[in-house]
Amino acid sequence: MIRENLLKALLSLLIILIVMGGLGFWLEEEMSMLTNWVVDRIGFTGLCLILLITDTFVTPFLPDILLLVIAKSDLAEHWLAYVFILGAVSVCAGMLGWSIGRWLGHFSLTQRLYGPITAEQQDFVRKYGFWGVALGAITPLPYSFTCWTAGVIGLRWPKVLAASLLFRIPRMILYYLLIASTGGLFA
């Protein structure tokens, strides 16, 4: 299962790189104008609020779009600070998502959706839960869903926080670097 998820994550990352590279090659000037327009309208605080909402609630919105906005706008000059802050906001959003999952885990509908958690599954979660959150934190798949699920199944808060801090912020920095470099990939 871990190998399959890693392969899916790598394939997703490859697809994102190809799309971003194509956009960067064919629409470089338009993307720069659009991203600067977005930053002028909502500012960096607006980007943080968008990320807080989309990483707290399960949405199909990828945070990588915000990284693209930074990479192709005037914010790129101080990218490391902005991306680090976005990573920290994402971790906070994930912990809010964990809290929501923890709360939802008490409802019978949620318990029916996830099914009964056996002792064997609980042992698995205790043993590998940290790595499950780490995998969710680094892949393009919805991080919020990973955190909600960790809350529902009762993964301890410190494990979720540690995995999120150790993997989500570096993931944001690495993905930014990949996105920022895609403009020149096909030139």
Helices and strands in order, then pairings?
Layout: H1 2-26, H2 28-56, H3 64-71, H4 79-104, H5 108-114, H6 119-138, H7 143-152, H8 157-181
Can you characterise this structure?
The structure is a single chain. The chain is 80% helix and 0% strand. The termini are far apart. By secondary structure, it is mainly alpha-helical. Helix 4 (79-104) packs parallel to helix 7. The protein has one domain (2-184).
Give a quick set of tags describing it.
single chain; mainly alpha; 8 helices; elongated; membrane; DedA_domain
Summarize this, please?
This protein has eight helices and no strands. It has helices spanning 2-26, 28-56, 64-71, 79-104, 108-114, 119-138, 143-152, 157-181.
Question: Which structural class do you get from the secondary structure elements?
Answer: mainly alpha
Number of domains: 1
Which of globular, elongated, flat, extended, rod-shaped describes the shape?
Answer: elongated
Oligomer classification: single chain
- Helix content estimate: over 70%
